[in-house]
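User: Fold both of these, please.

Assistant: Here is the first one.
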Amino acid sequence: MKRTFLGFFKKSYDSLNSFEENNTLILFGLPYERIKANKRGSRKAPKALRKKSLEFSGISTTFNISQNNTNYYDIGDYNPVKEKEKIQEIWNSAIKKNCKLLVLGGDHSITFDALSKAPWDEKTALIWFDAHADLADEYPPGIFQSHGTVFANLKEKLQLNKNQMLFIGGHAYTQTIDEHNKIQDETEIIHIPAQEVHSNKKEILKIVTEFVSKFDRIYVSVDSDAFDQAYVPTHATMEPFGLTPHQVVEILQIVLPKTQYVDVVEFRHTLFNKAALNFGVGLIFKILELWES
């Protein structure tokens, strides 16, 4: 690993077993793409986001990580297929030392790789921000594990119930008719569409607060296409009428105090998406600040 994310100490995976500190934050990348039905490039995002972070000071009118008391460690990148045992070991260390995990994707399928190794019980919940529900049973047709099936797979493997799964920001969730039906019949998950956030923010924040209050531990996944295409103009699946950064931040202020894990996925790397990477780094800095407060 040539670069660490700005403000993070470099640490090796091999030293996790002798890791002495409690209450720290561990960052790692899962630079991986499975079968894609759209443009590729998200596997390059972890390194690109680290590189882009070095152009920041970490201090702005929006965030100031220099005032944070938590120690941050970047332990590099891993292949979620070939290095499954390492992901499990990272979770074991995080649980033992009460550390938070921040993961850089990769396409959205890496959320399955990371969270299928996490501890789960009835007091654990999952919240994801996305333009699409990613609840397809197969996507593309005949493919059962991809960025479009990740939450269907997690729900089935972990036997999660509807009340543990909150999907925020959907505004283009018609990858398959089966997925659309799952959302429409309201038996699979709890769903807050982007339009509801736009039109009735006060009520939505109340709903999120009530949801979070029921759980001891939250896992959060943020797909870049949850945001309107104006903020991520080179995304592989650009969608209009998405969430604004301020709306997501207001929700994260409620969610992050109980959150142990956050992943940021689908920040597709190309030669022309400097603005998108810039936004991604700023979002990560804001998450770090909110996590601290």
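And the second sequence with its predicted structure:
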Amino acid sequence: MNIHGKAFRYGRDVNTDVIIPARYLNTSDAKELAAHAMEDLDPGFVAAVEPGDVVVAEENFGCGSSREHAPVALKAAGVGAVIAKSYARIFYRNAIDMGLAILEAPEAVDGIRAGDIVSVDTSTGEIVDETTGETFHAEPFPPFITEIIEAGGLVERTRRQLAAQREA
């Protein structure tokens, strides 16, 4: 899967309460969640983010409450991938389950600046900062995670598998 977009930079310990504030958790509508993504941390995020853009963050991205709403909000807002030095484990799993590409790449985080244009190839783990020409590497997704991400999430992948079994 290839992702291409502008980088949005954030610090460490970005928690799920700032990815999607708790006051909006009365809905599971992806478009409604997207409209409020990052608003307490970066009020201009929703107006500026475009499909394929990349969130770049320091350590422990997605800490806090274990809610699926956070990766759903980012993905629905247009985020194509998140690159961080590390993730809270439950956010990492929720992001994959929801079909949001996430990569651990400390060197990329150190090298990518806000506004840089970034390309990500999740099948090889290659991350290119097209603004500077620097190339970084993350561990590529194993095939089964690639299938989940490309299908749009675990539920959709399971639906496709069940449909294929019925047709066989």
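The longest helix spans residues 154-167.
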